[in-house]
Design brief:
The structure is a homodimer of 300-residue chains.
Chain A lengths: L1 E17 L8 E21 L4 E7 L2 E3 L5 H10 L6 E9 L9 H17 L3 H14 L6 H7 L2 E6 L7 E4 L6 E8 L3 H6 L2 H18 L3 H14 L5 H11 L7 E2 L4 E7 L4 H10 L5 E4 L6 E4 L3
Parallel strand pairs in A: 3-5
Antiparallel strand pairs in A: 1-2, 1-12, 2-5, 2-6, 3-4, 6-7, 8-10, 8-11, 9-10
Chain lengths: 300, 300
C-alpha cells in the first residue's frame, strides 16, 4: 500500500514563542503563509518480512535516525508495535531544509497523516503527534498548526492542535515570491538575547494585525517586526528595499531563515523576478495553499 | 462588488446537545458529513443610495426579517453602522430548508464570510458571529463548526469556533446518498423527552467512535443511535433496512430531518439509487466536501 500526503511549506511572518512543559501547550502566536509547494511524503507499507522496520529518506536519500529524529519518533509512535513489515517514508522537499519553510513540521505531519491513514487514527491525533515531536526536538513551535490551517493564518491562542486557536485572513489572488538564501538556526535564535525583542515586537504586531486584519497589513507588520528585532539587517535589508521599489506591499524576512518573501499581485510578478534574477539570486514563485494538507491512497 | 461563498450541506450522524448561557460555549458533541452541495450565498454591495439597507432572499425570493432572523442578525452585525448603501444577500439552497442539511447555518456562515470579506474581519470572527446567532435563535448547535471543518467531522469538545474542537476522519472515495423526505423540528425534538436518550446514546456513540475511528464505524454507530433513541422507526426504518440490502455500510437517519443518508462505494451507487427510485422517493447523490467553505470575489 502506498499513501501520499502533501503538507504546504509554511513561512512565518512574525511570531512569539510560547514555551510550556507540556508539548501540546507549547506553541506560538503569530502569522504566516502556506504555499502550494512544500513537502510530499510517500509512505509505502509492505508486510511479508520478519521484523518491524521503519526507513526514512529525504529527497530520495536514506537518512539515519539522528538526522530525521522527529519523523522517526512520529513513525515509531504510529506504526503499531505488533506490525511486522517494512515501512518506508519518502519525504520530498520543494525548498531546502533549515531555510524557514517548515520542512521539519511538513515531514512530521506528512508522516503522521500517512501512517494514521494506513494504520487507523484521526487527523487531530496525527497532528498532535507531529506537533509533540516537533516541540520535544525543537523543530518548531507553530508550523504544524499553521500548516493545518492553510491559507494566510494567524495564531491567536498558542498551543498544539486541539489547544491552540488559528484564525485565517481573507485574501485576493496573490502570488508569493520567496528568495531562499541560507539557513538560520531556530535554536540559536531562540536561545539568544533577541528572544526578548521577539516577544515584545511579536505581541505588538499581533495586536495591530487583529485590530485591522489584512494580508497587506500583515506584511507591513512583519517587516516592522523583522527590522525592530534586528533579525533583518545589512545586505538582506538592502535587498528587501530593492524589491519594495517594484511591488506595492512590503517584502519581509522568512522567520527563521536567511531569506525574503513577498506578496505579489499578478502584474508585479515580472518586475519582482527581474530584481532578484538581475542579482543572480535563487528565487521561487508559489501560490497560496488554502485548506488542509492532502492525504490519500497513491496510485503511481 | 459581488462576493460568493459556498458552505457545504452538513448532515449530523449522531450528537449530544451542549447548552450554555454563553452562546460561544454552547455547541454539540457528535459526528457528521459535509457534502459538495449545500448553500451558495451571493452578497452584492452597492453604495450610492441614501440609507443603509440589508435585503435577504432565499432561492431568489425576498424574505422578511422573521423568516430569516439568523442571517439578518448576522448581516446587521457585520455591515458597519455607518455604511450607506444596499446590501443584498442572495442565498441558494441545494436541499430543502428544515430537512436537516444545515441550511440555516450555511446561510448564516455564508453571509458572515461574504460580509467579512467585503467589510473587513477574519474567518474566526465571521464564524463566531454565525455560530452565536445560530445558537441564540436555535437554528442549530454544531453545524457551523462542522461546516468549517469539512470532510467527515467529529466534534470532540463542544463550543463555537475557537472554543469547540473538531476532529476529522480519514476516508476513501465515497459518494453520499441522501433521501430527504420531510421536516423535523430541531426545537421540538430538543424540547421533548427524547433529549435524555440522545445525551446517553450520543456520548456512547462518540466514545465508541474515538476508540476505533472510521467512516464505516461512524455509520454503524449513527444507526444504533438513531434506533436506540427512537428517532428512527416505522416506515423510515423499513426503508433503511431495504437500502442496507444493497450497500455494505449501514444507512442512517439525517439528524434532524425526516430522511436517510448512506455512504456508497462507487459500485453501490446504481443499486442504491434503484431502491429509492423504485419507491418513487426523492434522492440525491453528492460527494464529500473536504476543507473549508469557499469565499471569493464573484465575476459573474
Amino acid at each position: 500500500m502506498l499513501v501520499r500526503t502533501f503538507v504546504p511549506a509554511h513561512i512565518t511572518a512574525f511570531f512569539v514563542p510560547v514555551f510550556h512543559d507540556d508539548p501540546l501547550k507549547a506553541g506560538s502566536l503569530g502569522a504566516g503563509i502556506n504555499l502550494d509547494k512544500g513537502t510530499n511524503v510517500f509512505a509505502s507499507i509492505e508486510t511479508g518480512t520478519l521484523e518491524r522496520h521503519i526507513h526514512i529518506a529525504f529527497n530520495g536519500e536514506p537518512v539515519g535516525k539522528k538526522r530525521a529524529i522527529i519523523s522517526y519518533s512520529v513513525a515509531d509512535e504510529l506504526v503499531p508495535n505488533d506490525f511486522v513489515g517494512e515501512v518506508e517514508i519518502w519525504q520530498y522537499f520543494d525548498f531546502p531544509n533549515g531555510y524557514g519553510f517548515g520542512n521539519s513540521a511538513g515531514g512530521a505531519l506528512g508522516t503522521a497523516l500517512a501512517l494514521s491513514y494506513t494504520f487507523g487514527g484521526t487527523w487531530l491525533k496525527a497532528a498532535q503527534t507531529a506537533h509533540r515531536h516537533e516541540v520535544l526536538n525543537r523543530g518548531g513551535l507553530g508550523d504544524v498548526v499553521g500548516q493545518l490551517a492553510g491559507g494566510i493564518e494567524v495564531r491567536v491562542k498558542p498551543g498544539g492542535p486541539g489547544i491552540g486557536v488559528v484564525d485565517n485572513l481573507f485574501f485576493e489572488d496573490y502570488r508569493v515570491l520567496v528568495v531562499p538564501l541560507g539557513r538560520l538556526s531556530t535554536r540559536e535564535v531562540l536561545d539568544g538575547d533577541v528572544v526578548k525583542a521577539i516577544e515584545v515586537e511579536g505581541k505588538l504586531a499581533l495586536e495591530k494585525l487583529l485590530r485591522s486584519p489584512s494580508p497587506e497589513r500583515m506584511m507591513l507588520l512583519a517587516r516592522e517586526f523583522a527590522e525592530k528585532t534586528g533579525l533583518l539587517s545589512g545586505e538582506l535589508l538592502e535587498l528587501a528595499e530593492e524589491l519594495d521599489k517594484v511591488i506595492s506591499t512590503p517584502s519581509s524576512m522568512i522567520m527563521l531563515g536567511r531569506g525574503l518573501f513577498a506578496l505579489l499581485r499578478k502584474d508585479e510578478v515580472e518586475n519582482a523576478i527581474g530584481v532578484v534574477s538581475d542579482l543572480n539570486l535563487p528565487y521561487d514563485v508559489a501560490k497560496i495553499h488554502e485548506g488542509k494538507p492532502k492525504v490519500g491512497r497513491w496510485i503511481g
